[in-house]
Amino acid sequence: MDLVGGRVVDPDGPLNRREGLRIVDGRLVEPGDQADLESDLMIDLQGGLLTPGLSDMHVHLREPGYEDAETVATGLRAAARGGFTRVACMPNTNPPVDQRSVVELLLARAREACGVHLHPVGAVTRGLKSDDLTEMAELKEAGVTAVSNDGFPVFSSRTMRRAMEYAKTFDMLIISHAEDEGLKGDGVMNEGYWSTVLGLRGIPAAAEEIAVMRDIALSRLTGCRLHIAHVSTAGSVDAIRRAKAEGVPVTAETAPHYFTLTHAALQSYDANFKMNPPLRTERDVEAILQGIVDGTLDVIATDHAPHSQEKKEVELDQASFGIIGLETSLGLVMTHLLRPGRVGAEDLVRLMSQRAAKIMGWNSGHLRAGELAELTLIDPQATWTVDPELFASKSRNCPFGGWELQGRAALTVVEGRLVHWEKSRAEADSGLLVRAL
Amino acid sequence: MVKRRHLLGLRELEPLEILEILDSARSFREVLDRPIKKVPALRGITICNAFFEPSTRTRVSFELAAKRLSADVLNFATTGSSVSKGETLIDTVRNIEAMKVEMVVLRHGSSGAAQFLSTHVKANVVNAGDGQHEHPTQALLDLYTMREHLSRLQGIRVAIIGDVAHSRVARSNIWGLTKMGAKVVVCAPQTLLPPDIQSLGVKTSYRLEEALDGAQVVYLLRLQRERQDGGYLPSLREYARTFGLKVEHLEQLPPETLLMHPGPMNRGVEAENAVVDGHRSVILEQVTNGVAIRMAVLFLLWAGREGTPAVREMLREGSVG
């Protein structure tokens, strides 16, 4: 397969800024090598970007237990369409990912799916309760490199301390769902002007910030690598920035909705804007953007959280938290970060591929000759309107329906195989030309 | 108002629309004093009172208002949430609508329920209280009562005392009063004041005496007893001591000052008995005016449906009263 005419974007990689790539037998080869071989597929992307495969270190695939909202197969298909070659799925399933058998089930399901790599995240504590630690050594043997109680904070500081000490023993990453559950109470949106106007119970920014600061203190105490999930507030960004300057082994992620939407969106009482942590203020959005630009926030993840229509098309305070994001993330990042010039193409690759791979210990996030090809071909000119009805995801809980976005994945390649190819759209909307099949 | 399909809250109403409702209510208020308290304004129209939350006075008031307008009334009540019954709110009301109901009066424990419903049904939706969001007809009857006594709303000073944080009545009153040019101060311990309440155009005070200074209306909010269990208050006793209205407070107030309460009241908590039953109290008048306000709202929403010959004819004949 020859990919010609596109610019390779792989910061610090040997192929950076080259034109085009060649894939032979699933592996990348040096451009120019084996030129005599007949290519079985030649794709000409004028002005396109060839990047290492995008990684999403925070998704929910709902299997096992909630297959009406998503399955491994549909979730990975959505990932492929969004340009992702690897995703990490969170353990709050039913049963949760707190033992080897569930990890094995997920990996088996992934092998039957479209080819996108799946990395299950194990639970920190059994049953996602705040009591007993999981058998992390065995979980690691089964293929888990990080543990998290995502969706449920580990509310006991003592348990979190022990979890960090134990995880460090096996060099496992702890991903923190930073939330003071008591302070959150039965809140449904950010506490502030709009919660007052709308009469909805608020979740103060402090509910996140207290937990971020606690977990940073415990990381400092134990030396365990800590990753803060879905950062949404200015105070959290500040705390993480200070901790990093001090040398605490902490990394962090945010999600596209935290730099594209504010709590004012809840005016419609549309549960597609109900997420946890909640959408915050303009000031928080600015701080998130700043954190992305200055590297305080390492990663853009999606926190893809599918819910069936019955869980969302109800009164707001009774609706489930969360939105899907795999198929909109790249477009939102390109439209709202790349196009206004807040980040460049190389930053995008760091934010959406390389840093997640590094944090999670994945052998991806780079393009090197001789390795199995794992890449995403981005068409930065493609303009498209978000229509959740067309998504591969089983759920439709997306707040971006109707938004005009510029930029999307035209092609996703895993181990040299096409797992997604936006053929008709790519041909129609851009300079993408397929010369031979 | 006549251009709107629904009454969801006072936040979205223009001052002129509020005035239109208050003026219409005055006509309907006269109807209530007639020997035969009934007009044919909504004859042939079916109104469903869908109450998903316990309520006596609001439901009865709406029912009476509908009947005074000659509408047919269907009462639908359930305690607890619709979801707990296994049917969603939309499905429940779509079923009612399938029985050819023209208007739905909705009381619901979830903020935004009326707005949510209005996007899913063809009927006119009247919000009869949604969670902690708004209770527009209550605020309209409050504005009506204030205007009747003080002859204006512009520039009057209103002190709202009590659990503002959890009160839909407070929110609707704040929108209505500030739009009409009144000066509003809210007074409660910080635990019962919502964040950024000042952004709604009101002052805040933690001291009752300060809030009452120069007030022409003292509006007491119902203190829900569960606030004590929720950790908002150490005890009802301390609340009554610190924020309860006492006879000596009234003595400091101008002679025309009104005492109002949306009811039901906790005697001895929000105010001393002697205050509640005193001559400044217009609490029962509020109840009477509520029927007139609800008649006005139901009528104006229905009249706003263009192309309804019966309504046009009625308006031409001036059969409103």
Automatic annotation (TrEMBL), chain A:
<feature type="binding site">
    <location>
        <position position="177"/>
    </location>
    <ligand>
        <name>Zn(2+) 2</name>
    </ligand>
</feature>
<feature type="binding site">
    <location>
        <position position="92"/>
    </location>
    <ligand>
        <name>substrate</name>
    </ligand>
</feature>
<keyword id="KW-0479">Metal-binding</keyword>
<keyword id="KW-0862">Zinc</keyword>
<dbReference type="GO" id="GO:0008270">
    <property type="term" value="F:zinc ion binding"/>
</dbReference>
<dbReference type="InterPro" id="IPR004722">
    <property type="entry name" value="DHOase"/>
</dbReference>
<comment type="pathway">
    <text>Pyrimidine metabolism; UMP biosynthesis via de novo pathway; (S)-dihydroorotate from bicarbonate: step 3/3.</text>
</comment>
<feature type="binding site">
    <location>
        <position position="307"/>
    </location>
    <ligand>
        <name>substrate</name>
    </ligand>
</feature>
<feature type="binding site">
    <location>
        <begin position="60"/>
        <end position="62"/>
    </location>
    <ligand>
        <name>substrate</name>
    </ligand>
</feature>
<protein>
    <recommendedName>
        <fullName>Dihydroorotase</fullName>
        <ecNumber>3.5.2.3</ecNumber>
    </recommendedName>
</protein>
<feature type="binding site">
    <location>
        <position position="303"/>
    </location>
    <ligand>
        <name>Zn(2+) 1</name>
    </ligand>
</feature>
<feature type="active site">
    <location>
        <position position="303"/>
    </location>
</feature>
<dbReference type="InterPro" id="IPR050138">
    <property type="entry name" value="DHOase/Allantoinase_Hydrolase"/>
</dbReference>
<dbReference type="GO" id="GO:0005737">
    <property type="term" value="C:cytoplasm"/>
</dbReference>
<dbReference type="GO" id="GO:0044205">
    <property type="term" value="P:'de novo' UMP biosynthetic process"/>
</dbReference>
<keyword id="KW-0665">Pyrimidine biosynthesis</keyword>
<dbReference type="GO" id="GO:0006145">
    <property type="term" value="P:purine nucleobase catabolic process"/>
</dbReference>
<feature type="binding site">
    <location>
        <position position="58"/>
    </location>
    <ligand>
        <name>Zn(2+) 1</name>
    </ligand>
</feature>
<dbReference type="InterPro" id="IPR024403">
    <property type="entry name" value="DHOase_cat"/>
</dbReference>
<dbReference type="InterPro" id="IPR002195">
    <property type="entry name" value="Dihydroorotase_CS"/>
</dbReference>
<feature type="binding site">
    <location>
        <position position="150"/>
    </location>
    <ligand>
        <name>Zn(2+) 2</name>
    </ligand>
</feature>
<feature type="binding site">
    <location>
        <position position="230"/>
    </location>
    <ligand>
        <name>Zn(2+) 2</name>
    </ligand>
</feature>
UniProtKB/TrEMBL annotation, chain B:
<feature type="binding site">
    <location>
        <position position="138"/>
    </location>
    <ligand>
        <name>carbamoyl phosphate</name>
    </ligand>
</feature>
<dbReference type="Pfam" id="PF00185">
    <property type="entry name" value="OTCace"/>
</dbReference>
<dbReference type="InterPro" id="IPR002082">
    <property type="entry name" value="Asp_carbamoyltransf"/>
</dbReference>
<feature type="binding site">
    <location>
        <position position="263"/>
    </location>
    <ligand>
        <name>carbamoyl phosphate</name>
    </ligand>
</feature>
<protein>
    <recommendedName>
        <fullName>Aspartate carbamoyltransferase</fullName>
        <ecNumber>2.1.3.2</ecNumber>
    </recommendedName>
</protein>
<dbReference type="GO" id="GO:0016597">
    <property type="term" value="F:amino acid binding"/>
</dbReference>
<dbReference type="InterPro" id="IPR006130">
    <property type="entry name" value="Asp/Orn_carbamoylTrfase"/>
</dbReference>
<dbReference type="GO" id="GO:0006520">
    <property type="term" value="P:amino acid metabolic process"/>
</dbReference>
<dbReference type="InterPro" id="IPR006132">
    <property type="entry name" value="Asp/Orn_carbamoyltranf_P-bd"/>
</dbReference>
<feature type="binding site">
    <location>
        <position position="107"/>
    </location>
    <ligand>
        <name>carbamoyl phosphate</name>
    </ligand>
</feature>
<feature type="binding site">
    <location>
        <position position="57"/>
    </location>
    <ligand>
        <name>carbamoyl phosphate</name>
    </ligand>
</feature>
<dbReference type="GO" id="GO:0006207">
    <property type="term" value="P:'de novo' pyrimidine nucleobase biosynthetic process"/>
</dbReference>
<dbReference type="GO" id="GO:0005829">
    <property type="term" value="C:cytosol"/>
</dbReference>
<keyword id="KW-0665">Pyrimidine biosynthesis</keyword>
<feature type="binding site">
    <location>
        <position position="264"/>
    </location>
    <ligand>
        <name>carbamoyl phosphate</name>
    </ligand>
</feature>
<feature type="binding site">
    <location>
        <position position="135"/>
    </location>
    <ligand>
        <name>carbamoyl phosphate</name>
    </ligand>
</feature>
<dbReference type="GO" id="GO:0044205">
    <property type="term" value="P:'de novo' UMP biosynthetic process"/>
</dbReference>
<feature type="domain" description="Aspartate/ornithine carbamoyltransferase Asp/Orn-binding">
    <location>
        <begin position="154"/>
        <end position="300"/>
    </location>
</feature>
<comment type="similarity">
    <text>Belongs to the aspartate/ornithine carbamoyltransferase superfamily. ATCase family.</text>
</comment>
<comment type="function">
    <text>Catalyzes the condensation of carbamoyl phosphate and aspartate to form carbamoyl aspartate and inorganic phosphate, the committed step in the de novo pyrimidine nucleotide biosynthesis pathway.</text>
</comment>
<keyword id="KW-0808">Transferase</keyword>
<feature type="domain" description="Aspartate/ornithine carbamoyltransferase carbamoyl-P binding">
    <location>
        <begin position="5"/>
        <end position="148"/>
    </location>
</feature>
